[in-house]
Structure formats: C-alpha cells, structure tokens
Amino acid sequence: MTADVRIWSVEHRFGDFTALHTVDLQIAAGEFIVLLGPSGCGKTTLLSIVGGFLSPSEGRVLIGGEDMTLVAPKDRPTTTMFQDYALFPHMSLEANVGFGLRMRGVGRRERREKALEMLDMVGLADKAARRPHELSGGQRQRVALARALAVSPDVLLLDEPLGALDLKLRRQMQLELKEIQRRVGTTFIHVTHDQEEAMAVADRIVVMNHGRIEQCGTPEEVYLSPRTLFAAGFMGEMNRLPVTPEGSGLASPLGPLALAPQTGALCLRPEDIGLEGDFSLGRARLSEAAFFGSHHRCHFTPLAAPELRLIAHLPQGAHPEIGAEVELFARNPIILPEAAA
Amino acid sequence: MRPRLGSPLAWIYLAAMFTFILLPVITLVVFSFQDGRLPVPPFKGATLDWYAKVLSDRAMMEALGNSLLVAALSAFVSLLLGFLAASGLARVLLPGSVLMRGLLIAPMTVSYLIIALGLLQMFNQIGLRPSLLATGIGHVVINLPLCFAIIYAAIGAHQRNALRAARDLGAAEWQVLLYVAAPMLAPSLAAAYFLAFTFSWDEFIIAFLLTRFDVTLPVEIWSMLRSGLSPETNAVGSLVFLVSVLIVVTLELSIFRKARK
C-alpha cells in the first residue's frame, strides 16, 4: 500500500526555538524521499510530525489526501523504523514482526503467515524463534524493517536507520532498502545526514538546514545544479570563490575569469577542475596529492592567491608531482548568490 | 589485577564485621531450639518443641495468615499504582512533573510513626475502624513511593523507544503497558513487588496502630513479648526471618541474575 504525503506550511517551535520554518513539501505515492541535513536542521522533527509523535505548531499534514495533523501515531497509516531499532526484547522475531497485526486484531495463523513472509523478505525466516539480543546489528535492523512493513503501511518513516551500522554493512543495507522499497511500493521517507547514503537510495533528496528546505530534487539535480550554497556544500565537496563582475568577465582572487559577469560565489566540484577544461583558473602549485583509486585528490595553491586552496580530482593516469606548477582549467561553473548562505 | 588474598588483618576485620551484623540473628535462631524455659545462655540442648508450639498456636497462625494477606495485597496495589504513575510520568513531560515525582516519593522521607498517626486520625474522621484493611492502606502509603522510584528509575531511553514503537504499530495505551512495558520492566516490577512485600511483612508501627482484633504477625509477636521472654518468641522470629531470607534469595537467584545478563 502506498499514499502521497503533503506537508502544508508546517512550522514547529520548541519553546522559543523554531525547529521548522514554514515547510512545504509534496511527496508522491511510492516515492523514496530522503531528508538530508546536518544535526539540528529539523529533519527528525519533520519526520516526527509526519509520524504523529509531534503536533506541528502551525500547518497541516495530509496523508493520502486525509488530514492527519492531529491523528495519534497508532491511527496513522505510517510506521517508523527507529534508529535504535526499538525491538521488543522479550518477544521472538516472529512476535516482534507480528506485533502490529496483533494490535489490529489479526488472527494467530494469519499473523504467523505474514510475519514469516516478512522475515523471509529480509532473509531471516530461519531465525523466527530467536530473540532480538541473539542477532547482529544488521539483522536487528532488518527485523525492524520487517516489523514496520508487516502492517502494510502507506508510508514508512526511517529515522537514521543505518546510523549504527559499519560502513560496509551500511552500503549493503542501502541497496536492500532501495530494492525492498521498489518491491513493496510503499512511500519511504528516510532521514539521514550522510549525503552518500542519500544519493544511494533517494528518488528525491530534500536538503534541509536551520529548519528550512534548501533544495528539493533528484540526486543529479541537487549535485549538479545546487540551488543554494548550503546545498552545494553539503552534497559533496565544493570549491568556492567569491566573484564580482568586471567588464565583460569576472574578477576573482585568482584574477580575471572568462565567464559572464555576475556577483556571488563561484562553485566548482573537484572533478570539474583539471589540466584541461572550458576556462582557465590561472597557474597553481600542487601542494599535496593522494591516490584514491578512481582519482588523485590534489590540493593546489593558486599563485595569484597563495592563501587559497583548490581541491581537484585528477584522472588516474595523471602523475602529479608535489611542487609542480601547472595551469588549471575548469568546467561546469555554478555561480550562486552569496546572500543565500 | 586484584590481589587474591588480603592480609590476615583484613580477614579478621571481615569476620568481626559479620559477627557484629549476624550475631543477634544467630543468637535468636540458636535459642529458638533451647530445651528450657528461657532463651538465654547456657544452651541446654536442642528441641523442636517451641516450633511445634508456635505452629499449633491458633492466634499466631491467624496472625501469620493476616500478615501474608496484607503483604501480598498491599504490595500488589503499591506495584500497580507505582507502575502506572512511573509509566505516565516517564512518557510525557508535563509542567510540574518534577514536583509530582517529588510528591510521590515524599512519604519515603517521613517516619512510619508520623504516617501512622496521620492515617489513624484520618481514618477516625471518615469512620474507617482499625483493621487489616486500614493497615493495608497504610502499607500502600509507605510502599507506593518505593515501587514508583524503582520502576521509574528502570525506564530508560531503550524502554521509551520500544513503547513509542508499540504505539506506532497501533497499540492502544493499555496494550502498550500490558504487552510491552510490563514485560520489559519485569525484573524491576518483581524487585519492587518483593521489596514491598517484605517491608509490609516486617512492618510493626503502622500495623500496631491501625489494627485491633485481627492483627499481623509483628503485632502478635509484640504482645507475646510483653508476657516475658520465651524460646517460643525466638521460634516465631526465626520463622519470620526465614521467610524474608527465602524471598531475598529467590529474588537474587531468579530476577537479579537474569537482569544482569
């Protein structure tokens, strides 16, 4: 089952602190949405409001077209996968997964069938009689997923569900989450501060900061054409240079650049800086380099502005020598207004 | 690394400490077997006569039954009220919840005598005569704060999240308490119950002031003591002590050991 979610001018205050400033968001049925931002950006508050654990100070939440703003969590078509899994330690996995159905008055046999089916989906059917403490972190996490999905919610809320796992397991679980989401078709709203995780699973990423939505778009949109300096900086690495118009070009700390006149911050991804490109950044000295497998990560000190540092990814085949002076080129420039930061 | 053996001095100190703590109890138990009329040295030989006398003493056995009844029921009521109060206060942040917690725990700091006097006056006014019921209520008054404090302390972030998950999965509030909160808190609930039980079982002042015809065991023992020392009182005392020890040992073996895992 699945449903769309509309968040209508939702604002939330904790005492004097405003955690969310008039947030508007529309989520289509069956979408995998990731709320991405640093801690304290309001993403978890927004998730709690959708789940019904918090009532917004202002605004409304609609799920499947129905106003859910004041409906208690137990009566919402949403379930949550909590960061610490929140499994019931005194119940077997089967009872854990079947709990939601039991609360809905589903009979014992049907409950058992559904629970086993869900455990099978996450690859734990053989451990149905075990208790949660006998499982590893990744397995507990799968049980939490199975439990949340067993009641066929319209919307599944995931509160940093992979936060406690190690990197390798996290990458694997991201794939599984995405796969399961495609299979069941439920709308997933996933909260994380890890931009790689966001890119791995999301249909659309909602970048949040200071209780506001900075940008909302597909991973490509957010990465390639960030709308604000915050979104640009949070989604991957970014070189930033302040620029002002000068004649028919731009003035920058590196000297004049052959770009259309504009005021703001020139943003360049490390992979868009190299020994060739669309426009020159002037000469620079390589101060540090490290081999990262797919690329060399290099720190350049521009000769025109020795206090600055440019980060560039040079191709595998390049053999950068520390101290070498080269002319740097760049492509795909993005100029964002400075004030938005 | 801990040294395996302490100095002889440490061992002597330990022995002295245990002697100091346990000597009264040991004396009590030893002289309950006294083959003579007085429970004082010298020890004249062992007999089980006094135990037989206690067990065939109608009044004594009635008092024992009363004590068990009051302890079992008052501990249960204290546990139930304490559990509900703790779950409620742990779940929501109300204005003044710190004050409410303080008020709930406050009776612990008041002497039993004062509580008993207050209850006596109040029961007089509302026309509740001194009885086992009155004593039971008194024991709830002293044990509720204890149960509340034990259970409230046991509710951590882990429990709170599980309760949240249960509500999220569609459980009504009573289902959350019955299916998730109570089983997760089982060790603390049991600890609270048995502590409340032993406190009620041993309690004298409140029982003394709030009972009249049906009395609890400590009150019966007290009235027996008034007619002078006898190995029979030692025998009763030993039995009471045995019950308390059994409860503590059961607790230690079953619940606390499990909770530590």
Descriptive report:
The complex is a heterodimer of chains A (341) and B (261). With 341 residues, chain A is an alpha+beta fold. Chain A folds into two domains: 5-234, Rossmann fold (3-Layer(aba) Sandwich); 239-340, OB fold (Dihydrolipoamide Acetyltransferase, E2P) (Beta Barrel), CATH 2.40.50. Chain A contains eight helices and 20 strands. The mean pLDDT of chain A is 89. By secondary structure, chain B is an all-alpha fold. Chain B has one domain: MetI-like (MetI-like fold, Orthogonal Bundle). Chain B is 76% helix and 0% strand. Chain B is built from twelve helices and no strands. Chain B has helices at 8-31, 49-55, 58-91, 97-105, 112-126, 132-154, 157-168, 173-184, 186-202, 205-210, 217-226, 231-260. Chains A and B meet through strand 6 and helix 2 of A and helix 7 and helix 8 of B.
**What's the total number of strands of chain A?**
20
Q: How far is the N terminus from the C terminus of chain B?
A: 23 Å
Write down the Rg of chain B. 22 Å
Largest sheet of chain B: none
Order of helices and strands of chain A: EEEHEEEHHHEHEHEEHHEEEEEEEEEE
Q: Can you tell me the CATH topology of the largest domain in chain A? A: Rossmann fold
Instruction: Report the C-alpha radius of gyration of chain A, rounded.
Output: 24 Å
- Unreliable segments of chain B (pLDDT under 50, ≥5 consecutive)? none
The number of helical segments of chain B is 12
Q: State the secondary-structure class of chain B.
A: mainly alpha
Which two protein chains have the largest interface (Cβ within 8 Å of the partner's Cβ), and how many residues from each?
Answer: A-B, 24 and 19 residues
In terms of DSSP E residues, the strand content of chain B is under 5%
